[in-house]
Design a protein that fits this description.
By secondary structure, this protein is an alpha+beta fold. 21% of the residues lie in helices and 48% in strands.
């Protein structure tokens, strides 16, 4: 495992984490066309499903995100963010586990506690 500073994250990971809350965010900028996202027990495949997930999930709750740490393990980049807001429990540290394609897009994102 190799620790990463926030400023050493792969560009596509940093872009996703910074821009996904924007109403104009387009997952096609970061995700491969056949990418998948696993979040909260659900799997979203392809850009259409990922786009629906992004825009639905972002409107569900109000919260702030604080970067905790990041590391690489094998070909996976993991970022741990603390979310605090009006969701059940109000505080959680989430692991965002990214697998990237050879051309630098997100092939898979797994989000879990």
């Amino acid at each position: 495992m190799t620790e990463l500073n926030r400023d050493k994250l792969p560009g596509v990971v940093a872009h996703y984490l910074e821009d996904r809350k924007k109403a104009t965010y387009d997952p096609a900028a970061d995700f491969a066309s056949d990418a998948s996202v696993i979040d909260d027990g659900n799997t979203y495949n392809g850009l259409s499903e990922i786009s629906k997930w992004v825009h639905t999930a972002e409107g569900e709750f109000t919260y702030t995100t604080t970067f905790q740490r990041a590391y690489t393990e094998g070909d996976r980049v993991t970022v741990v963010n603390r979310l605090e807001g009006n969701f059940p429990g109000g505080l959680v540290d989430l692991r965002y586990q990214f697998s990237l394609t050879t051309d630098g897009l997100i092939a898979e994102l797994v989000i879990e506690v």
